[in-house]
Write a structure and sequence with these properties.
Layout (H helix, E strand, L loop, with lengths): L4 H18 L6 E5 L2 E4 H18 L4 H9 L8 H8 L3 H20 L6 H25 L6 H14 L1 H4 L4 H30 L11 H8 L1 H10 L2 E2 L2 E2 H8 L1
Antiparallel strand pairs: 1-2, 3-4
Helix pairs in contact: 1-6, 7-9
């Protein structure tokens, strides 16, 4: 039911370095953070995007998300989910947003965002995030769970784990049931979807290029890593040297 932390970090990076470029300077001025002016319209746009992100991370419909926000006692006992819902409180959300903007101002003033390595890391983060979001969207389209399915799984969970599940309100039990059902569909449909997506792209390999040999032996940066890491001795694999010595 919970997305990986990697995608969460990706969203944070994107928000930190790209959001200011797309900000709309409408609405009332909230405050000035360094040279940056935060308006109500801009922050509301940021908050709306955060809600969208929360829906993806929690693998929940927004309607379910809203109900849990209004009934915090029904939020499943998972630390990541509790932190996620905590950040949906505008006061908590704005506090973190404000801190990011402060640090962003300092980072930009020091030229950190102009560092070639940082730029490449941001590009890589964008690639990873786009792929994950696209795959998640296509996968969500395959997830069809009826109320009967959720009710049946909820009953099953209460029979299997009476001490943990029986005391929970029906809404929370159904939320758990939906999560289990989603994970089963994802486990089944994920590999199929991945194969279907890849089939839609033509790949032309260079027959004159030995990709495996390149990746294993001829990547300069990887060879340097192996040499400095101690698994390569004078251009040869340390393991091979050990075999000869034995």
């Amino acid at each position: 039911m919970v997305y990986t932390k990697k995608i969460t970090a990706g969203f944070a990076l994107l928000a930190l370095f790209f959001y200011s470029a797309a900000a709309c300077k409408k609405g009332e001025l909230i405050e000035e953070i360094g040279s940056y002016k935060v308006t109500t319209a801009e922050y509301e746009d940021y908050y709306t995007t955060y809600v969208d992100k929360a829906s993806i991370i929690a693998r929940s419909e927004k309607s379910t998300l809203y109900k849990l926000m209004c009934n915090p006692d029904q939020i499943p006992p998972h630390p990541v989910l509790h932190e996620l819902f905590k950040q949906l409180d505008p006061k908590e959300n704005y506090k973190d947003y404000r801190e990011m903007k402060i640090i962003e101002q300092v980072a930009k003033a020091e030229g950190f965002t102009d560092d070639p390595v940082v730029k490449k890391i941001i590009e890589q983060t964008v690639l990873e995030t786009v792929v994950k979001l696209y795959f998640q969207k296509k996968l969500d389209q395959r997830i069809k769970i009826s109320m009967d399915d959720k009710t049946a799984r909820c009953d099953e969970l209460r029979r299997t784990y009476p001490q943990k599940m029986a005391p929970l309100p029906l809404e929370t039990c159904l939320y758990f049931a939906e999560g289990f059902l989603k994970e089963e569909i994802i486990e089944r449909e994920g590999p199929r979807l991945r194969d279907e997506i890849k089939e839609g792209v033509a790949i032309v390999k260079n027959k004159e290029f030995d990709r495996d040999d390149y990746l294993e032996n001829k990547m300069p940066v990887f060879n340097t890593i192996k040499k400095e890491g101690g698994c390569m001795v004078d251009g040869a694999e340390a393991s091979e040297t050990e075999k000869k010595e034995n």
